[in-house]
């Protein structure tokens, strides 16, 4: 049985969800699952081609239509356009999934300022800007749910990917600050920390020839790599009323990998 089948098909009726990076990988799967369970879903990414393909896939799988808009979350003007689009079409968003991210292997001493900036802007600034675009409406409605896709224990560092580690640690801090600040407005803010999930993004950007990461499950206690479905089940739980007293957590979904993480030498 698909783990997502445990979730009621009407679970997200009446909700409006924005999923950044929703045209591929984990974001696409979360967007599809929310659509299948009644939410109006808006997906964004930079590539129009990928967005169009995702719209078709979601329609074929769920029989429902998603909206999409090209948006580079690093660009303030793009985020403003996204906000305008969602406000005029849906009146606001009640769910934001900050999933868009950039990553590539670069030893710190060779990392250019622009490379650092590219990742921090996509991950940390993008999470801040997209959330801020929609939280005002959530506060007015006294109802909202923000889910940030992070990594496991970013505060411990991420050798070879120090830009990503720093950005994700910043997102974790935002998760906690926002959970505290907005809890009294009926808004929950949580994170999910995926273990290794072999998506296109990982294959293209993290498994470079000189990257220390290997595409195998040797170190995973549960004996396999993750799937977008594994992450989506956790997302559906955290976004649902079943998690109504949970805020400010970074839920690790990694098959137990971080009980004994492999040592990497960048
Ligand atoms: C299955 C086993 C897996 C094992 C892993 C397990 C560990 C789990 C933890 C994983 C944690 C996180 C994972 C992820 O985030 S996966 C998602 C990754 N997805 C993506 O990155 C998709 C989007 N990314 C991109 O499109 C590109 O990577 C990029 C961000 C580079 C594109 O942006 P842009 O077009 O704006 O960038 P530029 O090409 O202009 O480059 C900007 C600067 O960055 C430098 N750069 C780019 N690529 C590299 C590289 N590979 N190495 C070094 N430097 C790079 C580039 O040179 C520019 O800088 P300069 O102008 O100074 O040269
Ligand atoms: N897969 C894994 O092993 C792990 C993933 N994660 C996290 O999970 C999330 C999803 O990763 P995954 O599905 O693997 O990655 P993918 O690369 O498959 O998906 C990332 C998505 O983000 C979009 N994106 C990238 N940069 C931008 C930008 N500047 N503005 C808007 N959209 C952007 C991409 O679309 P486009 O190129 O069209 O813009 C793409 O749709 C990320 O936050 C990642 O850091 C965390 C730990 C492990």
Structure in words:
This protein is of the alpha/beta class and 266 residues long. Helix 1 (25-36) packs parallel to helix 2. The mean pLDDT is 94. It is built from seven helices and seven strands. It starts with 15 loop residues before the first strand and ends in a 13-residue tail after the last strand. It has a single domain (20-259), classed as NAD(P)-binding Rossmann-like Domain (Rossmann fold, 3-Layer(aba) Sandwich). A seven-stranded parallel sheet has the order 3-2-1-4-5-6-7, with helices on both faces. The protein binds ligand L4XM7KOE and NADPH dihydro-nicotinamide-adenine-dinucleotide phosphate. NADPH dihydro-nicotinamide-adenine-dinucleotide phosphate binds next to helix 1, helix 4 and helix 6.
Name of the top-level CATH class: Alpha Beta
Strand order, sheet with most strands: 3-2-1-4-5-6-7
Globular, elongated, flat, extended or rod-shaped: what is the shape?
A: globular
Low-confidence stretches: none
Number of helices: 7
Task: Assign the CATH topology.
Answer: Rossmann fold
Strand content: 5-15%
| Domain unit count | 1
Number of strands: 7
Mean pLDDT: 94
**Which molecules are bound besides the chains?**
ligand L4XM7KOE, NADPH dihydro-nicotinamide-adenine-dinucleotide phosphate
